[in-house]
Amino acid sequence: MRAEILFPEVCNLYGDLQNVYYLRRCCPSLEIVETDLRSRPRFLDGEVSLVFMGSTTEQGLRLAADALRPYAADIAARVDAGQLLLLTGNALYVFGRAIESDSADTRGVGRNPDTPLEGYRRGGLMATYLIGPLLILNPPLCKWLLRRMNAPSDALAFEAAAMASYEKRVAEFRQESRNYLY
Hints:
Structural class: alpha/beta
Number of strands: 8
Order of helices and strands: EHEEHHEEEEEHHH
Shape: globular
Radius of gyration: 17 Å
C-alpha cells in the first residue's frame, strides 16, 4: 500500500499532513511518498492507494494549480475511475474548474450556496473544508478510508481513546444549548 502526499513543501498548513502519518500508525506497512511541485504525480503512473493534499496559502494554490494543470485530463480520468484523493482545507480550489488569479486575488470554485452540505465528492475524490487532524478526530471515517484503501485491517492506532473522544464530541455537537449550526 502506498499513500502519496502532493506538494508537502507548500500544502502543509494546520497539521493536515498528520492525517497521512496517522494512517501509517494504523497501518505500519503503508509506504508514504511525497511529490514536490516539479515532479509528475506518482499516482498517474503507478499504484497509489490514497493521494492526499492539504491546505496551503494563496501563493501555494497558484503553484499547485500550475504544477497540476498539464495533468488535468489524466487526473480527472483517474478520479472518475475511483482513485482515492483526499483534499483538506482550501486544496479543493486546485481541483475546481478554474482558479482565477491576478496579482491581488485568488478565487476558487467556492462552496455551493444551494446546499447546506460541506465538502465535495466526485468518483474517488473527497474534499472537505475541514482542516487539521481530520482522520484522528473522526475514527469512523478513518476506518472507512482504510477499508477503501484495502488495508489489511481497519484497526486504528489508539482506537479506544479516539472513539471515546469522538463520541464525546458528537454528543456535544448534538446539545442544542451549544448553538452549533449542524
